[in-house]
């Protein structure tokens, strides 16, 4: 029962008691009757005053508590005749105004934060307390290579079945890791948390670092190659000149005592030549020119590449087939550079096969896509992640230059490329970007 009802019940009991007492003494002692009735009138006045000073302010404040409970911070309490109660009401109204302003500020900040997350180039994945994905921003959907955010909502990162998903799932709080894929794409993934309603909510940040890493690598190996080329060429040139003079002097002297020396000198000259050739190959990687683009029929380019590699494949007993797109497949590319890229990839394929295997080139249009497949036994995940790293090679006599060249040319063409290996089949896919449009394209 509410307090005001108890108050009026008590007032009724008091008034009724006084009235009964007064009536019972009305005939016996009239003076006592008037005294009792006077007391009753005074009690009525006191009860009214008490109601206005205590019960009504209490009722008003209780109504305010209900407003707070319902989180209705826009309503205010009205003033009362009692100045003491008005001080409490003024304080309550100021508190409600402050809460309202703080709620508006929080909503505005949250709205701004939502817009910022949606527009951020960094992928943001917010997790629930069970480690499952609660929300993903558009950048995260793109970086994780999924169709829509709903594909992962309520799931864990291990459900992606990718290396990046597995590495993210293993992250500990405040830990970050660099994930590098076989196509040279690199990501920085970190796990952090924010507090909401007193609880720490974990979230994942995903940032692509491909361009920064490739630029840093390129500057490093360019500087290294230039220094090596300068020092080696100067030294090799001087040594070669000296060895040539020695060889000519011994040959013209006709002294049989030095016949055993001539092959050594000749081998040393040949070794210097190979060293110079090796350094020049490195320098050529640094000096790759920008693409000279023109309209190229990709199907015809692939046929040309096949004819250039056919003899080597036949000598190894390797079956070489083409699966070309039926529609016109034109691309705006540097034909010479892309031709060399394909020749390098094919060289790796038939060397990986060795003998008796199969190589297939598949093309598709819209977008222009070239796929080179071989059954050379495949490559391990560890090698696949490192294969485009400068100077990395698995061959005993390799230099790690061929795929450096492939990487640089495709990067300059802004093409997407990916290397995958499964069940002994290695698949190198090149997909030209939207900038590789034919010359016949006309802007609207």
Q: How would you describe this structure to a colleague?
A:
Helix content is 53%, strand content 17%. It is an alpha+beta fold and 444 residues long. The strands form three sheets. The protein has a five-stranded antiparallel β-sheet, sandwiched between helices. It has a five-stranded mixed β-sheet with strand order 7-9-10-12-11, with helices on one face. The radius of gyration is 43 Å and the shape is rod-shaped. The protein starts with a helix and ends in a 13-residue tail after the last strand.
Task: Give the SSE string.
Answer: HHHEEHHEEEHHEHEEHEEHHEE
Q: Please describe the biggest sheet, giving its number of strands, its sense, and whether it closes into a barrel.
A: 5 strands, antiparallel
What is the overall silhouette?
rod-shaped
State the helix count.
11
What structural category characterises the helix and strand content?
Answer: alpha+beta
Q: What would a concise description of this structure say?
A:
The chain has helices spanning 3-24, 30-69, 83-119, 138-143, 163-169, 210-253, 261-286, 298-315, 335-353, 381-386, 402-412; strands at 123-127, 133-136, 176-180, 186-196, 199-208, 294-297, 319-323, 330-333, 358-364, 369-374, 416-422, 425-431.
